[in-house]
Amino acid sequence: MSTALEQALDLCDRAVSLAPSRATEIGVVRQRAQGPLRVALAGRVKAGKSTLLNALVGERLAATDAGECTRIVTWFQDGSGYDVQALLSDGSRVAIPFRRVDGALQLQLDGLDADQVTRLEVTWPSARLRSITLIDTPGLASLDDRNSLRTREFLAMGEDRPADADAVIYLMRHLHRADAEFLGAFLDRSVSASSPVNAVAVLARADEIGACRLDAMTSAARIASRYQADPVLRSLCTHVTAMAGLLAETGLTLREDEANALRTLAQTPSAELDAMLLSVDAFCEPASSELTVEMRRALLERLGLYGLRLVVQELVAARAGTATELSRVLLAASGLDALRALIDGHFLPRAQTLKARSALAALRDVARSLAADDPAGARALDAEIERVEAAIPDFAELRTTHLVLSGAVILSAAETAEVELACTPGATDSTRLGIDEGSTAEVRRQAALLAVGRWRTRASDPLNDSATNEVCETMARTFEGIYAAAV
Question: For residues 352, 358, 362 and 367, what is the CA-based torsion angle, rounded to 10 degrees?
């Protein structure tokens, strides 16, 4: 059986004959579907999006200051060479000068007006960018409304067109009303667009929780767990995880000269050292250390107060000493591994289905634009899209997950857990059934048969609405497929 993506690509080929006047647009849709999954990072101003992106890539590529480039949607993609280009509003492209300064990438718009630039495209050879293209967006709730508007336009919020991103990682300092409003706007209740299935939230700059105490990350993890259990937030995204992007970025790029400065700092008498680490002002007091104030400010910029306290504790206790050992400490504390596991376990297994869904949404947009010029062609294309969408089993399971996670269908906690388990992409049949791996075919058949019976019984409830019946029928068919495959 063809995969969801293969069927979407076949539909693109047929769509050219149905709408020859839109061949170029359809070609773009096909090319996009064949590329990596596109994941956007969004959030309020100063949420730490660029720092988190740098941590995910493992290099300091995204600008973290308040320069012109942070006002522009910027794509980071894998390539065979190093290149930066600006896509202008008239469709033309302009090469952008760039250089590395202290390991960080610096871009120069070189006289271009930021308002003329639709997006920047940074091509960089990177193993981490081969499977996903990361997209840094301007901060929401900015003093300059144009910055927020660029992000909203990119994500097609409130517009009758598909977003340019297949999935989104939303960064928040805490659950502010504006964060819920953004996720609610990004979330479209139609499965053909965005849903909780392709959105995760990050409790960002988590090291700053609790005045940067050494238990800050533990506290942040508890807060993230509470958010994830919140039914309102659960209806907007599938997971919430705590992350200290600065620790991760610095852990991946820590230099030996910085480690040497930290070792010097750790040799300060304990009473003086404790006083220095009480606040930023105390740490930068000129007479408090033999390290220059400039070096101390640079360390603060790279580590933050929590990071400084953490590495000094490790150095004083002689649990770490070299730059490599300090890097491990920072990475372990940052939450980067948990976020990467979330991307690898949640987004990437669904990548083909998400890209196929994005392709169908884009083709539907083509059909709408065609309606004025060629109504018959538009109807034929729309009918083909409906046929393909209905014929792809992955879409049915994706829609089921969407309906349950978005709150459109209310199930019991046990039923919700069973839906999530059964619709886990790439999982074995034993895992989807919730039984031990290595179970015999007969055990799998019996478990699947019981599940079919449960969901058929659930579907017969006369109080069900149509969406609930749809979920029940999809679950029953899923377990019927597992039963048939248990040989």
Answer: 80
**172: which strand partners?**
203
Same domain, 279 and 397: no
Residue 269 lies in a domain: yes
How many angstroms separate the Cα of 84 from the Cα of each of 79, 97, 127, 131, 402? 11, 7, 18, 20, 37
390 and 281: one domain? no
CA angle 63, 96, 68 (to 5 degrees): 40
* Residue 405 within any structural domain of the chain: yes
Task: Name, in order, each residue with C-beta under 8 angstroms of 278's C-beta and a sequence gap of 6 or more.
Answer: none
Neighbours of 392 (CB within 10 A): 22
Identify whether residues 252 and 281 lie together within a single domain.
yes
* 89, two tokens: 């509003």
- CA dist list (Å): 337 to 126, 177, 239, 333: 18, 28, 15, 9
Alpha-carbon gap, residue 257 to 485, rounded angstroms = 59
Same domain, 364 and 462: yes
Tokens of 143: 């003093």
Mean pLDDT by 10 residues, the chain (487 residues): 86 93 94 94 89 93 72 93 92 90 83 87 94 91 73 70 83 78 59 62 92 93 89 79 95 94 94 94 91 94 96 95 96 96 88 89 91 92 91 84 82 93 88 92 95 96 93 94 89
Task: Give yes or no: residues 477 and 355 share one domain.
Answer: yes
Please count the helices (runs of H) and the strands (runs of E) in the chain: 21, 11
Whether residue 448 lies inside any domain: the answer is: yes
Q: How far apart are CA 5 and CA 452, in angstroms?
A: 28
Give the pair of three-digit tokens for residue 336. 């980067």
399 DSSP 8-state letter: H
**Residue 371 shares a structural domain with residue 474:** yes
> What are the DSSP calls for 310-370, one per residue?
HHHHHHHTTS--SHHHHHHHHHHHHTHHHHHHHIIIIIGGGHHHHHHHHHHHHHHHHHHHH
Flag whether 375 is in a domain. Answer: yes
- Listed in sequence order, the residues at least 6 apart from 372 whose beta carbon sits closer than 8 Å to its beta carbon are none
**Parent domain of 315:** 248-334
CB 87 within 8 A of CB 118: yes
Which residues, at least 6 apart from 99, have a Cβ–Cβ distance to it below 8 Å?
105, 106
Number of neighbours of residue 115 by Cβ within 10 angstroms: 10
Rounded to whole angstroms, what are the CA distances from 80 to 53, 135, 391, 398, 483?
Answer: 20, 19, 38, 34, 46
pTM of the predicted protein model: 0.86
Q: How far is CA 182 from the centre of its chain?
A: 15
Q: How many domains does the chain have?
A: 2
Q: What is the CA radius of gyration of the chain?
A: 25
Residue 355 and residue 404 in one domain: yes
